[in-house]
Design brief:
CATH topology of the largest domain: MetI-like fold
Order of helices and strands: HHHHHHHHEEHHHHHHH
CATH superfamily of the largest domain: MetI-like
Distance between the termini: 26 Å
Radius of gyration: 25 Å
Largest sheet: 2 strands, antiparallel
Strand content: under 5%
CATH architecture of the largest domain: Orthogonal Bundle
Structural class: mainly alpha
Helix content: over 70%
Number of strands: 2
Number of domains: 2
Length: about 325
């Protein structure tokens, strides 16, 4: 009976935790729809964008009426959120085609760039951070920490320009822009991972995008590892005769990873959302470059669709991070 009671308590705690996170996610998405609606209202006159500057007043009025711009705001918002729930964001003012497919077809390029950047940043941060924590006085550790300071300080666009100058103009080793040769996997997903030309095109944008995350993650890993290595159970492990690497990788790393996992998850969302700078510098055909062009052309449906898609990605990533956080530290379920 006690074991059944304990297992039931664990299950109830987990269900409560998941329910709270799902409710928070829905609330966030609802808040984003309000922001999107406000953006749609004040980004500019959609009728003028649709019919052009040479249109007559009668034509403008006709388009405004058809769009429901004269309806009360609560009516407009009701219609807007109904369309959002159905996945309908209207047609692009520029192409006249549905906005959602326009944004979705750019997702593969942005995801490949973001995941590559985060892979480089995460792997290198773990290697450099662990070594710097174990050998804080070593010359390589000091050089690595100096490098991370530079990575935090340099603006992303400047890093991209410098890489283009060095590897594309001076050394002529890597292409300066574009996505390169692609392999089509599905009707809407093409990848550059399967071609050497695609990988060469991906290298500089991924390094540029991941450099800031690499610098931040390295400092977090180093700081957490140094703190964990001073704890009593680490001294006990050393007293048992375990090697320094066994103590670090088998005992200290798991506890040090808890804040690191959270930060990586949040950084992944930021990388996806703010990849527009790198995509603009390297003319990478992802969502970031699309949103810049859409804002310039006042293509409101595409802008709103982009915001909603990014919001869904953020919510999903944060929800996944919460689950991983509970796996690494099960006490979180009971403390919240």
């Amino acid at each position: 009976m006690p074991s059944l009671s304990i297992s039931g308590g664990i299950r109830n705690s987990m269900l409560t935790f998941l329910s709270n996170r799902i409710l928070q996610s829905v609330t966030v998405l609802f808040g984003v729809t309000i922001v999107c609606f406000i953006v749609f209202q004040y980004l500019g006159d959609p009728a003028l964008t649709i019919v052009g500057e040479d249109a007559t007043d009668e034509q403008l009025e006709e388009v405004r009426v058809s769009l429901g711009l004269y309806d009360p705001l609560y009516v407009q918002y009701g219609k807007f959120i109904t369309r959002v729930v159905r996945g309908e964001f209207g047609n692009s003012f520029i192409t006249g085609t549905p906005a959602l497919p326009i944004v979705l077809e750019r997702i593969p390029a942005t995801l490949e760039l973001a995941l590559s950047a985060m892979f480089i940043a995460t792997v290198m941060a773990l290697i450099i951070g662990i070594y710097a924590a174990m050998r804080p006085k070593a010359s390589l550790s000091k050089i690595a920490m100096l490098f991370t300071l530079g990575g935090i300080s340099l603006p992303t666009f400047l890093t991209g320009i410098l890489l283009i100058y060095v590897f594309s103009i001076s050394l002529q080793m890597l292409p300066p822009f574009g996505r390169g040769e692609l392999v089509k996997l599905t009707d809407w997903w093409s990848t550059g991972f399967l071609t050497w030309d695609g990988i060469k095109h991906l290298f500089m944008p991924a390094v540029t995008l991941g450099l800031f995350q690499l610098a931040m993650s390295t400092r977090v890993v180093r700081g957490e590892m140094q703190e964990v290595l001073l704890l009593d159970y680490i001294r006990t492990a050393r007293a048992k005769g375990l090697s320094e690497w066994q103590v670090t990788l088998r005992h200290a790393l798991k506890n040090a990873l808890i804040p690191f996992v959270t930060m990586v998850g949040l950084q992944l969302g930021n990388v996806i959302a703010f990849a527009m700078v790198v995509e603009t510098v390297f003319q990478w055909p992802g969502m970031g470059l699309l949103i810049i062009d859409s804002i310039t052309q006042n293509d409101q449906p595409v802008v709103v669709t982009y915001i909603m898609v990014i919001a869904v990605m953020f919510v999903f990533i944060n929800f996944t991070v919460d689950l991983l956080y509970c796996v690494l530290n099960p006490r979180i379920v009971y403390e919240r």
